[in-house]
Amino acid sequence: MNTPGFGATAPRPVPILNIANLLTLARLVLVPLFVVCMFLDDPIWRFVAFAVFVVASITDRIDGELARRRNLVTDFGKVADPIADKALTGAALVVLSVLGELWWAVTIAILVREWGITALRFAVIRYGVIPASRGGKLKTVLQVVAISVYLFPLPEPFAIVAHVTMGAALAVTLITGLDYVVQAFRLWRGSRGGGKAVGAPFNRPEAQPPTAS
Fold first, then answer.
1. Cα-based torsion angle of the residue sequence 203, 207, 209, 210 in order, rounded to the nearest 10 degrees
2. Considering the entire predicted model, what is its pTM?
3. Residue 64, pLDDT score
4. Which end of the chain is more exposed for a tag (fewer CB within 10 A), N or C?
5. Is the Cα torsion angle 47, 169, 23, 70 positive or negative in sign?
6. What CATH number should be reported for the domain holding residue 62?
7. pLDDT for 84-122, tens place per residue?
8. E strand or H helix at 185
9. Are 90 and 72 in contact (CB under 8 A)?
């Protein structure tokens, strides 16, 4: 008698406290440290804040690669990773606006787009998953670069570099946000009309909850 799967070893459960999730938690811990350094009135602490932001941003790249390569993807990581990302960039944008170095209109526009699209992707997850686009990845890179330029104390003649970079980041952020809204509408309309939805259905093995936008 042949038993299906006889002799096969069941896959080991992925521990929550793995290296990828620990890096995500470290990024969350670095957020308040970054904020405190920004409000300390000393040029040295400004450099420290810049370094903390850069290190935290690098962990975002590393933890995702580790999770995929070592099969360390967990439900906790899927939720915590985007929260850590948006907490870091959001804190940086808000602090820069509080200090009068960045227009509040820019900060509000980016934050509304970031958290709004994240909420939208989870809202339509019953119909399908909206995959992270190349534009979304470019948006993330531009935001990190733009914030880093603002954080680094450049001489006044070079301040235009920060403004131009942030302008590009804002434009890509809003354009990709509109694209996600269109995709979400197509998913919803496809489910209502019985048509084929755009995006991977959530019950397929290859589909995963949204982790980046």
1. -140
2. 0.79
3. 74
4. N
5. negative
6. 1.20.120.1760
7. 888 999 999 999 999 999 999 999 999 999 988 888 877
8. helix 159-193
9. no
* pLDDT, averaged across the chain: 81
**Angle at alpha carbon of residue 10, lines to 7 and 16, rounded to 5°:** 160
- CA–CA dist 187, 41 (Å, integer): 49
The whole-number pLDDT of residue 197 equals 47
Tally of domains within the chain: 1
Q: How many Å separate Cα 175 from the centre of its chain?
A: 16
Range of the domain at 144: 19-193
Residue 55 covered by a domain: yes
What does the chain come to in residues?
213
Report the b/e string of 45-64 with b at 16+ CB within 10 A.
ebebbbebbeebbebbeebb
Measure the CA–CA gap between 109 and 164, rounded to whole angstroms: 16
| Residue segments in the chain with a per-residue pLDDT below the cut of 70 | 1-15, 131-133, 193-213
| Residue 72 amino acid letter | L
Tokens of 171: 């434009």
Q: Please tell me whether residue 10 adopts helix, strand or coil conformation.
A: coil
